Task: structure prediction
Amino acid sequence: MTDNLSDSRIQVRDLSLDYGNVNVLKALSLPIARGKITVLAGPNGCGKSTLLRAIRRLHKPASGAIFLEELDIARLNDKQLARQIGLLAQSPSAPGDMTVEELVRLGRYPHQSMLQPWSPGDSAALERAMTGTGVTHLRDRRLGSLSGGQLQRVWIAMVLAQETDVVCLDEPVNHLDMAHQLDCLDLVRRLNREFGRTIVLVLHDLNLAARYADQLVFLRDGVIAASGTPEELMTEAGIRTVFDVRSMVITDPVHGRPLCIPLGTDTALSA
Result:
């Protein structure tokens, strides 16, 4: 269980959040480790994306708070927060006739003002983001002409151009084929390992979660069901409790991480 608050980049404290009359997050507390990859996983509707968006202050909590170390994010203005936390939401969209460079430039918006227009520092950040994601050669291409994998890299480049210490990604491999899923997550891991970014990632695929996570968090019904290493959480009993799935868990012979082989659902058993 991850509970060392002194080494946390983000602390979610007793967070409750409602959609209308529906209580989505329920007095949820979670420390997120500095410089690590934290993966949020759980059944559909358990609150993963809501928690990620709350960390970026896109949802107002009913109670509780989120801290960047000891700083309550509610005390930051929008641009101050955008310089600290970057977010790539699910299925983002932009005009198809926009160029790759134009989209990535939007990542520098939090650093712009009437008195501080585009600067050499912004240009350098733009180039670092495009080089780091391998999209420099696409800079003049229209978004509508890109493949799904190329487009996802461009969106990640846009988030990286913000140069935030914390990067939140909501299902970044959604709708990608296997090769592009691995390319995308390998890129995320490289950003973490080489540049020390704190990554918070929502993934549905448990085996991808186990392969890339330093800290794995299982949510169910708006609360933390369990938090720890993939080895601690990826057990047959744990998966059945959280996901209602019977499984066999073995050790991946290549990567040494837990590997879940689904056998069936409890729903199917009771039908």
In short: The radius of gyration is 19 Å. The domain at 8-262 is CATH 3.40.50.300 (Rossmann fold).
